[in-house]
């Protein structure tokens, strides 16, 4: 909600401050007083085009600040991206220099003008001559129809959104699994070939180390045999007796004198142990000589096996252990084939089921929109005819954009689909008798579009869109009952959002909760304008001025008093 607008040195406004309240705010003032400058200041603060000609004569710069409360979620997201904390209020400011340079700020932080413009679009919308409108966008037109449909239609649309999101997630997973399937197919082909090769090799962990040792023995078998034979003979040969007669004779003599001298007994015992060790050495060397290979054909087999192990290790990880690990992994991959195919089959069935549910929900949503569209057509057309557009016809077209990749409807057609269903909505207007309904963008003038917007907003019972709506003199040419109808519609709209209107009609201004008046003052220094909030007495006077016409001042004042009472908007 816009709570304050501050203007300095902009056109005829040297300094002006005006406060706005909730509900309906009316801005009045004599022609040329500066009401258009006030709206220009608001547009400039919200990122509108800067014009150095707006800087007040004799000043170097002009500035304008719009202060908002109740920041909507869409604006809060933009603020998060800037790192700006809205605190209790949000201040959008703009400084314009006479040289043409301008600076935009959000809560005193300098930002690009495009950022302020984005925030402004989320906070406030202006309807009037030369002003654009979000009702010109098809997405907003569809949102308007849905809001008019109420809770039931919105619940169906929410279901469509949930089903659409679920389908999108399932399709994304399906694409991922299909990619994995293609990759798995390639990996499986490689795994089958690797497994066949590695299983045929019958690899055993540590086999390479054993074969290397065997190869060394085979390469040096003659030298190893010669050394072993010499040791064998030196240790006693094949008779398992201690080497030389001297040790045997000495042990015999030591046994005869055993027990006489303990020291000699200990030495004899050590000699006995040496004799036993010699016997064991003879046995070990004999076994070694017996098993020492001397077959040159075995050397060739070992060399060939080692070459195979080295080649497999090089292809499958660099080591024999890595090659064995690859064999186990390939075996598991081959054993697990078919699991991904089953998951794909289940997911494809899930997508089909989701599309069936989505089709039914979209069909239900379309039927609801078409019914609501007809009701909205009647309601808006009636309002337009009460606002001096007696032959206007407002139409709502619900249609679909063909898409060969969309899900099929019950009639077999395929349409472009999104979170809000497959419907597109277009607002059409035939302003005059005999006109063919055409899109609002092509046919509606500023005043006509403003009245369409007012009629639409008055029927949207749910709070949606921006929090503040500005109507700039959409009452031109209206009077009598038409003016009353416009005033009532504005008051109805103001129950769900803030409305600010620039008006020349007393029946509209009288319905305002807050009444502001732009006052022009001329003195020796030139012309300047200011904005005043009217109390009851001054409000009666301003309404009387608007009502005067050919009436006497006294009669106009009585009429103004009666009007305030009649509309139930007494102030004071």
Structure explained in plain terms:
The protein has 572 residues and is of the alpha/beta class. Among the domains are: 207-335, no CATH class; 534-572, no CATH class. Helix content is 55%, strand content 16%. The protein has 17 helices and 15 strands. The chain has helices spanning 35-45, 73-82, 113-123, 138-201, 207-219, 221-234, 245-256, 262-291, 296-315, 320-336, 339-386, 440-443, 446-459, 480-493, 506-509, 536-547, 553-567; strands at residues 2-10, 13-19, 24-28, 61-68, 90-97, 102-106, 109-111, 124-128, 393-399, 424-430, 438-439, 468-472, 498-502, 514-523, 526-533. Strands 2-1-4-5-6-7 form a six-stranded antiparallel β-sheet, covered by helices on one side. It has a six-stranded mixed β-sheet with strand order 8-12-13-3-14-15. A hairpin with a 2-residue loop joins strand 6 and strand 7. Helix 4 crosses helix 10 (320-336) and helix 6 (221-234) runs antiparallel to helix 8 (262-291). The longest helix has 64 residues, at 138-201. The two termini are 24 Å apart. The model has no long low-confidence stretch (mean pLDDT 81).
């Amino acid at each position: 909600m816009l709570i304050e607008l501050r203007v300095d040195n902009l056109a005829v406004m040297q300094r002006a401050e005006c406060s706005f309240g909730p509900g309906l705010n009316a801005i009045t003032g004599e022609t040329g007083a500066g009401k258009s400058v006030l709206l220009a200041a608001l547009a400039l603060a919200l990122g509108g085009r800067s014009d150095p000609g707006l800087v007040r004569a004799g000043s170097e710069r002009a500035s304008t600040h719009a202060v908002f409360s109740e920041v909507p979620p869409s604006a809060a997201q933009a603020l998060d991206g800037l790192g700006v904390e809205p605190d209790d209020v949000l201040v959008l400011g703009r400084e314009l220099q006479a040289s043409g340079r301008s600076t935009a700020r959000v809560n005193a932080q300098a930002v690009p003008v495009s950022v302020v413009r984005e925030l402004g679009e989320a906070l406030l919308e202006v309807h009037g001559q030369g002003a654009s409108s979000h009702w010109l966008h098809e997405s907003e037109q569809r949102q308007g129809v849905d809001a008019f449909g109420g809770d039931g239609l919105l619940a169906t649309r929410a279901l469509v959104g949930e089903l659409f999101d679920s389908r999108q997630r399932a399709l994304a997973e399906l694409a991922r699994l299909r990619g994995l399937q293609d990759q798995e197919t390639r990996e499986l082909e490689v795994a089958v070939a690797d497994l066949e090769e590695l299983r045929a090799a019958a690899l055993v962990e540590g086999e390479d180390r054993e074969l290397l040792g065997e190869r060394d023995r085979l390469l040096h078998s003659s030298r190893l045999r010669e050394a072993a034979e010499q040791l064998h003979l030196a240790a006693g040969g094949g008779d398992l007796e201690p080497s030389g007669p001297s040790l045997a004779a000495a042990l015999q003599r030591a046994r005869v004198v055993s027990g006489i001298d303990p020291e000699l007994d200990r030495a004899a015992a050590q000699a006995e142990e040496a004799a036993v060790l010699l016997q064991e050495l003879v046995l070990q060397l004999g076994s070694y000589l017996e098993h020492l290979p001397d077959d040159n054909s075995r050397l060739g087999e070992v060399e060939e096996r080692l070459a195979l192990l080295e080649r497999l290790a090089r292809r499958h990880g660099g080591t024999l252990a890595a090659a064995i690990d690859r064999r186990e992994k390939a075996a598991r991959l081959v054993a697990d084939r078919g699991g991904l195919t089953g998951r794909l089959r289940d997911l494809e069935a899930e997508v089909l089921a989701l599309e069936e549910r989505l089709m039914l929900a979209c069909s239900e949503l379309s039927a609801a929109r078409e019914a609501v569209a007809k009701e909205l057509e009647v309601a808006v057309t009636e309002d337009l005819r009460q606002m001096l557009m007696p032959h206007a016809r407002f139409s709502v077209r619900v249609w679909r954009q063909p898409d060969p990749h969309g899900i099929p409807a019950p009639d077999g057609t395929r349409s472009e689909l999104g979170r809000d269903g497959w419907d597109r909505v277009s607002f059409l207007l035939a302003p005059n008798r005999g006109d063919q309904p055409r899109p609002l963008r092509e046919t509606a003038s500023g005043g006509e579009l403003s009245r369409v917007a007012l009629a639409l907003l008055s029927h949207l019972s749910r709070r949606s869109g921006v929090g503040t709506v500005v109507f700039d003199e959409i009452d031109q040419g209206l009077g009598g009952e038409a003016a009353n109808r416009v005033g009532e519609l504005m008051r109805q709209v103001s129950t769900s959002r803030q409305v600010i209107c620039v008006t020349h009609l007393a029946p509209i201004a009288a319905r305002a909760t807050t009444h502001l008046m732009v006052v022009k003052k001329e003195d020796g220094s030139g012309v300047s304008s200011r904005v005043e909030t009217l109390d009851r007495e001054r409000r009666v006077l301003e309404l009387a001025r608007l009502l005067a016409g050919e009436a006497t001042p006294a009669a106009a004042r009585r009429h103004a008093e009666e009007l305030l009472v009649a509309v139930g908007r007494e102030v004071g």
